[in-house]
Fold this sequence. Notes:
Strand order of the largest sheet: 7-6-5-4-3-2-1-8
Mean pLDDT: 96
CATH class: Alpha Beta
Number of helices: 9
Bound molecules: pyridoxal-5'-phosphate
Structural class: alpha/beta
Amino acid sequence: MNVILKNLQAVRASIAQITKAAGRAPEAVRLLAVSKTRPAEDVLTAALEGGQREFGENYAQEGVEKMEAVARHLPPGHPPLVWHFIGPLQANKTRIVAEHFDWLHSVERLKIAARLSAQRPAHLPPLQVCVQVNVSGEASKSGCAPEEALELCRAVVALPRLGLRGLMAIPAPEADFLAQRKPFARLRALMETLRGAGLALDTVSAGMSHDLAAAIHEGATLVRVGTAIFGERTNA
Ligand SMILES: *Cc1c(COP(=O)(O)O)cnc(C)c1O
């Protein structure tokens, strides 16, 4: 069997097993296949033969070229793929993301969110977004501070062409399971605070190849997995 398909099966099995061990419902965790730096053929393999629907990209231009190449090869009637932008987003790339992606996980400033809302085409549904939070303190530079999350979320909710879905985090790498759980536990506590403040959030975007289990145990609803599906990246 193709290695991508074998990996995809193994990752799904592992998510199912961890989700069960964590006492959560089988459908509680969604898999986002992170296809950054991979060719369109790999996405097509995962989609057509592996039934994978959701893909994540980090670079706007690369992502758009890939989704167009992939779309040309999907057979008529194939359910549309869902494309998530998960990388840091500069102001000069917001239009590409607003016009082509379904989701964006890395909102960390209101200015960028406001641009995305203004640039989201009227014929598309609102761009689904997560606010990225820095739950690792000084060990990480990306994401808003946890104390700023409520204010930023409230401002994002007020933007007409964005749909706020939840929070995203990329904790600093830790080898030990318990150490990995700590930042995800902070993320979970913050989710509860925001919900308590009246925000309707359903998404915790957390966990990558190396810290999947820790994230699922702390309530991740969407895991972003690249290496464990597509193999080691060589060019980025
Ligand atoms: C690359 C990337 C991933 C996937 O990481 P792997 O370790 O390859 O699973 C997940 N999230 C973000 C934001 C990424 O940039």
